[in-house]
Specification:
Helix 2 runs antiparallel to helix 4. The two termini are 54 Å apart. The chain has 2 domains: 226 residues, Rhopdopsin 7-helix transmembrane proteins (Up-down Bundle), CATH 1.20.1070; 120 residues, Orthogonal Bundle (Arc Repressor Mutant, subunit A). It is mainly alpha-helical.
Length: 358
C-alpha cells in the first residue's frame, strides 16, 4: 500500500480519536463520569499514535518533548477505570485502585529526568526505553484481562450492557495483540510496517466506538434508567386496568390481558407466539384464532398495540424528554429502532419524533 495513503489513514485515525474524545465530554447525550475516562483513554491512544508518526516523519524539539509522555500507560489505566465505573465495582470505593496511574506519572518523571540530565543516547536511555516498553505492554495486558474478568462476573449490569462492554474489551485485546507484533517487528527486524496495520485497525476501532461502543451503550443505559424510574413510579401508584369486553368469556383472553397488564409481558423484545401460548397453556394456532376473534388483530398486532401505547405515554411525559427515542422504544418492548418506527408509523401515521413534538 502506498505510504501516502497509509499516512492519510493514520492522520484520519488521530482526528477521529480526538473528535470522539471531545464529543464524549462536551455533548450532553454522552456526558457521564464513565465516558470522561473513556474520552481520556481515546485521547491517549490518538496522542500516542500521532507522536509515534511524528517521531518517524518529523525531527524537532517539540516531538522530542512529546515523546517524554508515555500515553500508553495512561490509556490502560483510564480504560480500566471506565470499565469498573460501568459495572459499579466495589473497587471504586478503594482509593488504592488509583495507583494504576502511578506508572504513567513515574514514566513522565523518569523521561524528564533523562532529558534534564542529558542522558539521551546513552546506555541508560536504551535501558529505560526497553523497560518502559515491556512494562507498558504488560500493564495493558494485565488491566484489560482483569477488567474482562470483572465484566464477566458482574451481577450489577444487564446482559445487553455486558455484551457491549465485552465487545469493546475484545477490540482492545486485538489492538494490544497488533501492538505486540509491532514491537516484535521493531526489535527483531528494525521495520515499522505493522505500525500501519495498527493505525488502520485503530481507525476502525474508533469508528466502532463512536457508534456501537458509545452511542449504543448510551441508549442501553437510558433504557435502564427509564425502566428503573417506571418501576419506582409503578410501586407508588395503582395501575389502571384495561377494561375487558363484557362479552369476553374466554379464560385464555382474560389471562392474556392479565399477562399484558400485570406482568407487562409485551416489554420483552424476544416475546414470541410460542412464549405466549406456553404461558397460557395452549397452542399457537388456537391462541391466534381466539385473539383474532376477540380483537380482530393478529398476535403481533395485539402485542404491538400495548408497546405503542407504552411508547406514547413515555413520549408525552416531559420527564423523558432527555432520553433518546430509541431508548424509549426499547423500554416499550421493541427489539430494534426500525421495528419501533415502522410499527409506530403504521399505527399513527407519524414518526415517534413527530409525535413527541406534538
Amino acid at each position: 500500500m502506498d505510504k501516502t495513503l497509509l499516512d492519510f489513514v493514520m492522520i484520519a485515525s488521530v482526528i477521529i480519536g480526538y473528535f470522539v474524545s471531545i464529543s464524549l465530554i462536551t455533548t450532553s447525550f454522552y456526558k457521564s463520569r464513565a465516558n470522561n475516562y473513556l474520552a481520556l483513554s481515546l485521547f491517549s491512544m490518538a496522542s500516542l499514535t500521532l507522536i509515534e508518526w511524528l517521531s518517524i516523519n518529523v525531527s524537532s524539539v517539540i516531538v522530542e518533548i512529546l515523546l517524554l509522555f508515555r500515553f500508553d500507560f495512561l490509556f490502560a489505566a483510564a480504560l480500566f477505570t471506565y470499565f469498573i465505573i460501568q459495572i459499579k465495582h466495589p473497587l471504586l470505593k478503594n482509593k488504592w485502585y488509583k495507583w494504576i496511574y502511578l506508572p504513567f506519572i513515574g514514566s513522565v518523571i523518569l523521561e524528564f529526568s533523562l532529558y534534564l540530565l542529558d542522558l539521551y543516547g546513552t546506555i541508560y536511555d536504551v535501558m529505560v526505553f526497553y523497560i518502559k516498553d515491556i512494562a507498558s505492554i504488560s500493564l495493558n495486558i494485565f488491566l484489560i484481562f482483569w477488567s474482562r474478568k470483572l465484566l464477566r462476573n458482574s451481577t450489577s449490569i444487564s446482559e445487553n450492557k455486558r455484551h457491549w462492554l465485552l465487545r469493546l474489551n475484545l477490540f482492545v485485546i486485538c489492538l494490544i495483540i497488533i501492538l505486540i507484533f509491532n514491537r516484535v517487528e521493531l526489535y527483531l527486524l528494525d521495520s515499522i510496517y505493522s505500525a500501519y496495520v495498527l493505525w488502520i485497525f485503530m481507525s476502525l476501532f474508533l469508528w466502532w466506538i463512536l457508534y456501537y461502543g458509545v452511542f449504543r451503550l448510551q441508549v442501553i443505559d437510558q433504557k435502564e434508567e427509564i425502566h428503573n424510574y417506571l418501576v419506582l413510579k409503578k410501586s407508588a401508584s395503582t395501575p389502571i386496568k384495561k377494561k375487558i369486553k363484557s362479552s369476553t368469556t374466554s379464560k385464555i383472553i382474560t389471562q392474556l390481558y392479565k399477562l399484558m397488564e400485570d406482568e407487562e409481558l409485551y416489554k420483552d423484545p424476544l416475546l414470541s407466539r410460542l412464549d405466549l401460548a406456553t404461558r397460557l397453556e395452549t397452542n399457537e394456532g388456537y391462541l391466534s384464532q381466539i385473539i383474532n376473534q376477540e380483537t380482530n388483530k393478529s398476535i403481533i398486532q395485539f402485542v404491538n398495540e400495548y408497546r405503542i401505547e407504552e411508547a406514547k405515554n413515555l413520549l408525552q411525559d416531559p420527564v423523558f424528554n432527555k432520553y433518546s427515542i430509541e431508548a424509549i422504544g426499547m423500554e416499550a418492548g421493541f427489539k430494534s429502532k426500525s421495528a419501533f418506527y415502522n410499527a409506530f408509523k403504521t399505527s399513527l401515521n407519524m414518526s415517534p419524533g413527530a409525535y413527541r413534538k406534538l
